[in-house]
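Dissemination and training. As part of the outreach component of the grant, students in the summer workshop were shown how a complex can be specified as a set of sequence lines and then modelled as a single object. The example used during the hands-on session is reproduced here so that future cohorts can follow it. Participants entered these lines:
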Amino acid sequence: MEFHFDNTFINTLPEDENQDNTCRQVFNACYSMVQPQKVPRPQQIIYSPEVAQLLDLDDKHCKSLLFEQVFSGNQLLPGMQPHATCYGGHQFGQWAGQLGDGRAINLGEAINSKKERWVLQLKGAGKTPYSRNSDGLAVLRSSVREFLCSEAMHHLGVPTTRALSLMLTGESVWRDMFYDGNAKYEPGAVVCRVAPTFTRFGHFQILAARNNITLLKQLLDHTIQTDFPHLGKPSVETYLTWFGEVCQRTAELIIHWQRVGFVHGVMNTDNMSITGLTIDYGPYGWLENFNLRWTPNTTDSDHQRYHFGNQPRVAFWNLAQLANAIYPLIEPSQSLQDILDQHYTKTFQRGYEKMMAGKLGLKRFDEKLMNDLVVLLQSTETDMTIFYRQLAKMDMSGEIDSTHLTYAYYDNGYLDESYQRHLQTWLSRYASQLKQEQSSETERRSCMNAVNPKYVLRNYLAQQAISTAENGDFTEIHSLLDVLRRPYDEQPELSYYAEKRPDGVGCSMLSCSS
Ligand code: AMP
Ligand code: MG
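and obtained this result:
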């Protein structure tokens, strides 16, 4: 197992001069060199063959003892230069100062045979100068969630950081899952995350907040040269184009989240990737019954800042914070606000309308049809994922029979007369638009099934896989990864994984410590 590393981040940017691995403020530096913590009994749970392939690793490599040692943090390969990076961020709307890689350690930037750059990062590999009051470790339950969801998102076509491997460390970690005084020991785990870059909005924010403009410029120049080489030589003009591209990618990301019903849960600016990837899988959740105001994050349940329907607005707010951060590098006459409006708001609006029309198999977006659907979906508990797949099954060319939809409901509210009247009206309008567009039923069905997944990582499914894994049985994790590899395919033999949340399992809520 060999990698070719080209560690540009640490070769270009200034290093923390203090070599002590103690929690502190790190000034005038973008990272600190730090060793992963050794673990007593590494045990591999699963790896992703697709991510392995990106890194030119085959099954033999991934099943080797060396792989287990390296990706649990016990051994370094030649060329690895472990380090934790410094960033800040706004948490729940408030400036939180320095945060940084508190439980993530970058091993290096691997260049694969296709000359692609993939940063390898261990999450849960021990303390760094950015760990604040915490231990730098991760528990099995949150690591299973990170591993499975990264891969599920990728297969859904949603930009995301990836996960190469999931290892048990053999160590117990003390955690208070709901911050309610009921702490207990949980199995420790390490995920190896993989992405072209892990740079976040917060990397720029911390330098701007400290008025370190020289370093801010250095980081932005490095980012453009390494992660956005197509933009050309860094200059004020390139900074503006760069910001436009970050806006564009973020808009596209959020459209995907809204399409598949993903709620990130902690859209703090330190959890926003500058390349528009989904990053930091914490207390995220998947919409079960469609509810614009749903958030899975218990830490956010009072204000619901990061609820499903608010994600597009929060992304805008976060981009505005990034704009503020790079403002010192832009001449005052040039407007970041215009770029934000053009490349975020307009891109989002256009893309969102196209996406929503696509979910219905329509070529043209009809605002009233869409708004009425949103009302309908919320007027009785309706599983979003199942609804769209069942809608695709219906025959919309003749007399409308809505029996297929029955399966999407969580309660009997759909039997209500007024609900049925609204549903029938909506279905007739939908049918007449389809008729106008003259698309065939087969065409409509295949378009819809290509954008509306049958399989998503339902909260209760992840929980089941975690419970069995905590008892030493990893088969559910493997089965879930398998089914989630082809989320748009029928896979009838696995329909069990497409079932709605069972009775008695409430809407899953998780805390930030997840
Ligand atoms: P998050 O809510 O996961 O985005 O984390 C916010 C900040 O807290 C980041 O700087 C993390 O690195 C840090 N953090 C979260 N959990 C831990 C932990 N167990 N040990 C050290 N730092 C952590
Ligand atoms: Mg984070």
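The first helix runs from residue 8 to 12. Students were then asked to discuss how this feature might be tested experimentally.
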